[in-house]
């Protein structure tokens, strides 16, 4: 199981991810990012691509879709906090572009 990121490793990860638009959530050890698309079709297509990545990693986002907007929260339930799996998934989501 992936270990929770703490200390300098967590700070470094959060700072790398901040450059990509992710921020730490209030009140829980997780990161969040809002995505906006042209319309629902674009949002849903993107969610499909993320879903395939998530399934291949066996690491799944918490997310909400409202028409062309998607809010994604990443955390590792098994570890009750942020792990390298969340960082990896965030980086892979970033590579999809938007
Ligand atoms: C049983 C299964 O492997 C686990 O529940 C996996 C599935 N996807 C997961 N996704 C996330 N984000 N955190 C987990 O701890 C997790 N665990």
From TrEMBL:
Pfam families: Pterin_4a. Keywords: Lyase. It comes from Silicimonas algicola. InterPro entries: PCD_sf, Pterin_deHydtase. GO terms for molecular function: 4-alpha-hydroxytetrahydrobiopterin dehydratase activity. It catalyses: (4aS,6R)-4a-hydroxy-L-erythro-5,6,7,8-tetrahydrobiopterin = (6R)-L-erythro-6,7-dihydrobiopterin + H2O. Belongs to the pterin-4-alpha-carbinolamine dehydratase family. Its EC number is 4.2.1.96. One of its GO terms (biological process) is tetrahydrobiopterin biosynthetic process. This is Putative pterin-4-alpha-carbinolamine dehydratase. HAMAP family: Pterin_4_alpha. NCBIfam families: PRK00823.1-3 (NF002018). PANTHER family: PTERIN-4-ALPHA-CARBINOLAMINE DEHYDRATASE.
């Amino acid at each position: 199981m992936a270990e929770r990121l703490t200390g300098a490793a967590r700070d470094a990860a959060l700072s790398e991810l901040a450059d990509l638009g992710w921020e730490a959530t209030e009140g829980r050890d997780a990161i969040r990012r809002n995505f906006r698309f042209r319309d629902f079709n674009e949002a849903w297509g993107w969610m499909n691509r993320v879903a395939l990545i998530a399934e291949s990693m066996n690491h799944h986002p918490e997310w909400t879709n409202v028409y062309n907007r998607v809010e994604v929260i990443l955390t590792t339930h098994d570890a009750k906090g942020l792990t390298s799996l969340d960082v990896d998934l965030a980086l892979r989501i970033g590579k999809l572009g938007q």
